[in-house]
Amino acid sequence: MEVAIIGGTGVYDPAILTKTREVKVQTPYGEVRPTVGEYNGVEVAFLPRHGAGHTVPPHRINYRANIWGLRRLGVKRILATTAVGSLNPEMRPGEMVLIDQFLDFTKGRPSTFFEGGPDGVIHVDYTEPYCPELRGAVLKAAAELGYKAHDHGVYVCTEGPRFETPAEIRMFAKLGGDLVGMTNVPEVVLAREAGICYATISLVTNYAAGIADGPLTHEEVVALMAENNARLKQLLMRVLVA
Ligand code: HPA
């Protein structure tokens, strides 16, 4: 198993895969059950981040079990999807962004495998948190398909599950954030700790609170993802054969 897809909001089914089966993987953090299948001769594992029926909120996702489980399957590259709100007027709803940096505003999540003890104290470099090779492959595939994909973006990860206040969004914009979401930290962090090449395709589903007119709803996020699901799938498939 070389490649895994972690599907975010709106990406729940591994329909692009054939010969699928659910596997159970035990980890020190609990069991994970990715679907394993094939696309065009490539073995792929698929894991819906929020559970098959979108039942797990961002702050309760067992990120460590997910990444450990994929690592145990031998996964070397993870391509994830995330729904995001935009703070940047140039990153519009419906557009994709290959984020390359993050700002961590999460609060209470277990976000490391390195807890000290016999393994010692380990500090990992995040100068380049997202895998440049995989980001490059996605950007190339997007260009070939004629999809607009921004090649940089600073992702602000909030604790959720609530959406942000307009004051928070103004602060994030001042700090250099482009996009806001609730799940990429610690996912990207753990992937790096596990030595897995990781990239995320962020799909802008809305302008962030205070920039959008009126209140935000989860339903509009899901609706925008549904509208763009086919394009996202096309892009994932193209990257898998690259
Ligand atoms: N904020 C946080 N997470 C999100 C948003 C948002 O506006 N849109 C999609 N995920």
Automatic annotation (TrEMBL):
GO terms for molecular function: S-methyl-5-thioadenosine phosphorylase activity. Substrate binds at residues 182, 206-208. Its EC number is 2.4.2.1. GO terms for cellular component: cytosol. It holds the Pfam family PNP_UDP_1. It is an enzyme of class 2 (transferase). Pathway: Purine metabolism; purine nucleoside salvage. Keywords: Glycosyltransferase, Purine salvage, Transferase. It catalyses: a purine D-ribonucleoside + phosphate = a purine nucleobase + alpha-D-ribose 1-phosphate. Residues 3-240 form the Nucleoside phosphorylase domain. It comes from the Bacteria. The record marks 164, 218 as: Important for substrate specificity. CDD domains: MTAP_SsMTAPII_like_MTIP. One of its GO terms (biological process) is purine ribonucleoside salvage. Phosphate binds at residues 9, 49-50, 82-83, 183. Although this enzyme belongs to the family of MTA phosphorylases based on sequence homology, it has been shown that conserved amino acid substitutions in the substrate binding pocket convert the substrate specificity of this enzyme from 6-aminopurines to 6-oxopurines. Belongs to the PNP/MTAP phosphorylase family. MTAP subfamily. NCBIfam families: MTAP, PRK09136.1. PANTHER family: S-METHYL-5'-THIOADENOSINE PHOSPHORYLASE. Purine nucleoside phosphorylase which is highly specific for 6-oxopurine nucleosides. Cleaves guanosine or inosine to respective bases and sugar-1-phosphate molecules. Involved in purine salvage. Homohexamer. Dimer of a homotrimer. This is Probable 6-oxopurine nucleoside phosphorylase. It comes from Capillibacterium thermochitinicola. The lineage of its organism: Bacteria, Bacillati, Bacillota, Capillibacterium. The gene is mtnP.
